[in-house]
Amino acid sequence: MSSSNIKKVTPHISQNEALIFERSQPGRVGYRLPPLDVEEVAMDEIIPQKFQRDDELSGMPEVSEVDVIRHFTRISTWNYSIDLGLYPLGSCTMKYNSRLNERVARIAGFANLHPLASEEDAQGALEVIYELQDSLAEITGLPGISLQPAAGAHGEMTGIMIIRAFIDARDGAGASAKRRTMLIPDSAHGTNPASAHLSGFTVKTIRSTSEGFTDLEHLSELCAHGDVAGLMLTNPNTLGLFERNIKEISGIVHAAGGLVYMDGANMNALVGVARPGDMGVDVIHLNLHKTFSTPHGGGGPGCGPCCCTTELEPYLPVPRVVKDGENFRLDFDRPHSIGRVKAFYGNYGMMLRALSYIQTHGNDGLREATEAAVLNARYIAQGLAADYDKPFDAPPMHEVVFTDKRQSRKGVHTLDIAKRLIDYGFHPMTIYFPLIVQGAMLIEPTESVGRQELDQFIEAMRSIAREAVEDPELVRNAPHTTRIGRLDEAAAARKPVLRWKPKEAASAA
Amino acid sequence: MSSSNIKKVTPHISQNEALIFERSQPGRVGYRLPPLDVEEVAMDEIIPQKFQRDDELSGMPEVSEVDVIRHFTRISTWNYSIDLGLYPLGSCTMKYNSRLNERVARIAGFANLHPLASEEDAQGALEVIYELQDSLAEITGLPGISLQPAAGAHGEMTGIMIIRAFIDARDGAGASAKRRTMLIPDSAHGTNPASAHLSGFTVKTIRSTSEGFTDLEHLSELCAHGDVAGLMLTNPNTLGLFERNIKEISGIVHAAGGLVYMDGANMNALVGVARPGDMGVDVIHLNLHKTFSTPHGGGGPGCGPCCCTTELEPYLPVPRVVKDGENFRLDFDRPHSIGRVKAFYGNYGMMLRALSYIQTHGNDGLREATEAAVLNARYIAQGLAADYDKPFDAPPMHEVVFTDKRQSRKGVHTLDIAKRLIDYGFHPMTIYFPLIVQGAMLIEPTESVGRQELDQFIEAMRSIAREAVEDPELVRNAPHTTRIGRLDEAAAARKPVLRWKPKEAASAA
Amino acid sequence: MLGQVGLGSAEELFDSIPADLRLREPLKTSAAISELELLAGFENLAAKNGAARRASFLGAGAYSHYIPTIVDHLISRSEFFTAYTPYQPEISQGTLQAIFEFQTLVCQITGMEVANASMYDGSTALAEAVLMAERVTRRSKVIASSAVHPEYMEVVRTYVQHAGIELVQIDSDSSSGQTVADSLAQLDNETAALVVQSPNFFGCVEDLRALADKAHAAGALLIVAVTEAMSLGLLRSPGSTGADIVVAEGQSFGVPLSFGGPYVGLFATREKYARQIPGRLVGEAFDKEGRRGYVLTLATREQHIRREKATSNICTNEGLIALAATVYLETMGPRGIQEAARQCAQKAAYAARRIREIEGFSLPFTSPVFNEFVVRAPVDAKELLSRLAESKNITGGLALSRYFPERANEFLVCVTEVNSRREIDSLVEGLASVSSEMIQNHNGT
Amino acid sequence: MLGQVGLGSAEELFDSIPADLRLREPLKTSAAISELELLAGFENLAAKNGAARRASFLGAGAYSHYIPTIVDHLISRSEFFTAYTPYQPEISQGTLQAIFEFQTLVCQITGMEVANASMYDGSTALAEAVLMAERVTRRSKVIASSAVHPEYMEVVRTYVQHAGIELVQIDSDSSSGQTVADSLAQLDNETAALVVQSPNFFGCVEDLRALADKAHAAGALLIVAVTEAMSLGLLRSPGSTGADIVVAEGQSFGVPLSFGGPYVGLFATREKYARQIPGRLVGEAFDKEGRRGYVLTLATREQHIRREKATSNICTNEGLIALAATVYLETMGPRGIQEAARQCAQKAAYAARRIREIEGFSLPFTSPVFNEFVVRAPVDAKELLSRLAESKNITGGLALSRYFPERANEFLVCVTEVNSRREIDSLVEGLASVSSEMIQNHNGT
Ligand SMILES: Cc1ncc(COP(=O)(O)O)c(C=O)c1O
Ligand SMILES: Cc1ncc(COP(=O)(O)O)c(C=O)c1O
Asked: What's the pTM?
């Protein structure tokens, strides 16, 4: 294996660690509780025997505190993370997660606050929600905000249900029953059609043009049948291109009696520069865990606020947080609301972090972050253009898509390039998305990376392009420097093992 | 390189990272301060120009917050640590550093407390000191406590100065001037003679017997000249053996007019089982950063309380923390005190952690920890006896010493074995200490490790013993799996480069 | 760098956005503030949350339990919290192995066979369970006990409103507080699932075995929701009493109250339904050299592959909170969970005994409870609790009128291992004195 | 395991300890308590530290500065805080590189050529500097300004009491507050070093260049102590004004007050004295393949090799606190340090202007100050400050009577970037009102 070009990483020992269940030793404990300080009565007097658990929770691991510490510390070292370097996953906006925001979320007066505390007793918490709503309204240009959705997909569902509720109210039961089509571009994220489906819509797919934009003609065609409830559009779209005809697009949809939903996953290209509300968008979700820097946490939690026009506001989930004079309160009295989409008020801890992000950046800082994010993507676009196929000519916004077209001639595919990037010390980009681009590699550097590391990334990618020519096997078998190699995912799915079982049980099964 | 026996670790990529100075880019900043909120006057009016800095702090790195995060996160991954596994450094007591103790030390009411706050305003902080003093008095059997020393060596200096002050007072200036000899076993830690020297004593070395104990005859001999101020003894000694003649030893020293200082670095073998105060010890230092689990921090901070008999108490450093009715106060009025050894009251944050350790363990837990520490060392002693030379027969306490005697016949030395252990995923034991044991390997597992990992360690050591026979080169060139190999320390010391310099400056120099 | 990419100004970066869509002025959000100012501002807001500083007996879906210090320390390792969904297994084994352990722990504690990598929370997990029951049974009627948490039912209603599912709510027994099998007349062979919560919203432990039998007899699934997951340390697991899908709110396992989120939804079911599960699943896999690892698996259920035909639209879930629950469960271990559960039950029983003795107070429901129970006061509960908070600095529980206007004098009290006997005694004394004051005032006027 | 090692009971583990030395009863320390109880107990104690919750103008060797949040996050990575002294470089490069950066930063900020890996604190660093001066010059008289922090001088006195060093203290100028070259009559060719602090204990900036010239003319070293390291962001570096050894308390660089410790001693000198430095040093080194790394070096100076002939007895130093200072300095960068220093100076100047205007108050010293200055009040300062704390909830500074009984009406005020204008204004108003009250009361009686 040639590694002369690899300057970003060096192999080093990393600790092995079994499953915690394999570490368990009867009798070990890691907890310390105070002694019971009330008179104890026989448990059977409290809970009849037949309702009591009798398996002693067997199988659960018995370990000491230091076992737990070592277990998680060790396995943590097997992860790549933003704090280790560039994490250029397109569509995911892997930006720096400020420690200050983490600290804010842990302030006792928030962390220990019960969601059912009375309004008077939670004024600070409600004010945070209100402030964040206000800021997001300003940023999106859409005044109706609900912070209840827990993630992007959840926000989509909420937004689409709002569209449905609005149309049902506008058109009346009979007429609205005919408007059950949701238009979605073929480049859209999978959550879009899934969310539309959950709201009872039939999905029709709009083609993209060869330039990477929504096909206006196809859109018009699809809008001609009177069945369109709306359009779900990502902007910049998932190819990283700003839909420059957005006003026309919303015009067509509105004219056809539909509403425009914008998937706001790519707002990191727009904050402080342009506002969906000014583009004819009726409702949008944001991903606070992307644009507003709340940590991805290895897969969540997120927060997917839904922002809409005044017209749609009555349909937002309950409760709403409103201001009454100097006080904040929960408003449950919203007869047109689509209902509640989550217990309590959403992922509150993420709201704290996002507000902290907005306040520390300030309005200028928010725009500067957007500029840096776009500039970095542009820099990568230019740096890789000579070696990789760039399927679209339009200047990319915050992310750029390339393909494996040239490399695949040598039998080196996107997956191989991604895996080889690991050897070079980078987390791979998003691959095979969007689906419409064969062998897509979607690269989003975000603003949280300096020139030096961008250059390293470009150099690594160019080096891989050379390897694909000179030593395709090397790339096809990558990664070579990780604890484990490529795992057999097909076999795993064929006979899924989804949990640990004790040896006896496992062999008996 | 054969690695079939290595089960504890696997190579994995680790990020490279230059010096921060090499990452610097003019204009980048990682800080955020509020704007100045008072009327600004020309700086020259405040500080005359000639006193003002004019180098713009040039050379200091200019980086962003995320640069700093990535810098330290990356370099941190190059470290071994207790949280990654067994860290069997003899004499260092690398036990688990509880997160709870860390949390306690960060409670705002302690962390934000100024040391010159008035006593009324710092009652809680003083109570902590008082409580810890009380606990340590009970644990050592020595009632006079000062928490002021910042580490073990500092505690030694304090204790030895107390002995000197006591003798000066007892014998009067003339007579005491003749008592300037401090006896120290040849097995002692280097800080012992260095501390004795700092207190103006001449060091005489006591031989150890071939069984690994203080040579009583030699001691008696050295005590025969009337010049002995005291003895510094580690117990269990640095060979891990309890000085069973301790009572006799102190008897001899006392009879000769000297005092007995105990180096308490090895108290992890005794807490809850036996007390230095009952053994004739006059003064001892403890290492809170060993026995009482405060973190080693990559080399500190520590805390080295000095504990002494009632007789010596007047000589302890000022101020003392005392209780007056219900209140705690600082007592500066100690005319016999040796003086202050540190500004303020010592490494207070470590005191909080140690008290937390004592309270969460409770008296039973403290003893159980001692038992486990000794049992683990015993287990290792037995596990390695077949493969390594164990120079002393007495049953070891909390640590055990082996040598490279057998392996060195094949040209494999202690250093090689230590380095090879790294390949096996362990931090090496303490090597070449104590100095009296040729090729010493001093192993201290502590109580913070389970049977499973002890077995892995024994297996690794035995495997290395086999390798030393079968493939000595393999061992001699270890480690093979780390980011860097053995560094040329001799060259580094010959032409020391002790700081980074800008390129121009560096080449000009 | 701008020059490098051929641009003269930052504004040109946005040339592809039509000029009339670009903002001409800075956003009207606030100007940047420093860390110092920011922290002062948030501390200030936090200080306005009086309830966060008080002895509290609030439960009803969110519980105060002791959280070992190591939980936050471990989830704060940036290798965990600044990583994405583990799509690249070679450099994500930390997250993957943790999820595999999480799935296992969820199975163990619920007594089920497979569990997913988490849902948003207990309420959305319940909604997804209902949707899954429909997929599995291809039936469209769902019967739910009215003793399920009202907010959970609201969420279910929202989720199923366009799914052609008929949601029928049946009352729980007014004396025992339980959902009784007799009342299940509507459970027929059109029914996809029976949905119950245990302990239910009123704290009463349901007879799951009886309910399971009834449901199964009609070919319906039994969906059990658990809002107080700590109860599983003491109560027979839903899996062992015949549940087909178990969902739970995992907040009790090491997650701070945080004004309602982020929490974590647990979702477990029978192995045979594995391919109908919503959300992510992690499975064991091997590389060419036979080394064991973990991967996201059965992805064909998911939206990024299956799009509108996916088992759910969920993508981002509650990864880090699932990790917190994993750390918590492994730290506590079986003995710790049992002990915490025992203390909850004993302390709640003690509180119930003492409250029952207060003049004019009673406990309306007779069935066994875990750590929550309904109290009937001789006065308006909302006012009683608000006065108690004001004068005694205790949050005494939840006035049921928030969800059930007709239960004006009732409130739900929750007691956990963090409530000391002293707090309980103060609660009892406070309830006695405040209520008698209220009665006197009332009689006086 | 006991059986495995051939023992029948845990007691037998201690057979080598004579029976009469073994404890027959459990220790009389308290029984084990849980995390919950422990935290409650310590929170309770912390609440008794009123001073920690108050606007404060205390300095005098320990300073309140803003600490960026990332400092604690990074030093809390267990790879750093649970590692030992980096004796095995192959698996300790993280610690080693951080120390190398620390040494470089200390050189840069002090203007010196070499720096060690840290000392216990500023006071012990000063004591070690005095001992080193004796080694370097082989002279035994040391002259120290009385404007050096009194606690530092106490520590020096303790350290040198058995080293045959004669310590002479000379007064600073009563009007300027500076140590003036004229008063150095005793500085002769027996003198090993002149020791000054700048800004000195009274806040006055010393004229280091003049003092250095004087010392050097006699062949003595100039040792400069800095207790407020933040001043180095604004003041000419001691290195550039001729200092031979610079020691400083590094607490201002990202370290919490923590009732006096752990802090970190900075120690820097000229390259030619490198082999006389106390404590650890990290140097650059290379492996066989030419890869760069760092190692502990010049170990022959140290106790573990040299024993009683070592340059110091220090072993454990302040590693983690040095790391905190490193993270702090790298986060702030040159611009941040300059800005913080500028704000300190400007705010202190503002406070001084305002306090000087209060009826009866004056500033006894005329020389320039950085962020601390002495105030002379018309009443007893200790009482004034204690009343101020009580009635206005402000800690107004340090009554000098703690160290200088003769300065009963004087107190030392320190202002940093964390003191808002509002706090300063409250201080001024408080001083005015409390002092006039005291005078009235006094006149009244
Ligand atoms: C374009 C787009 N839309 C929607 C989503 C879904 O957001 P979430 O994962 O928060 O549910 C994503 C997330 O990856 C996305 O990239
Ligand atoms: C036996 C012994 N004595 C003294 C010391 C010195 O303690 P410290 O490093 O805290 O100064 C040590 C530390 O390693 C030691 O092992």
From this structure: 0.97
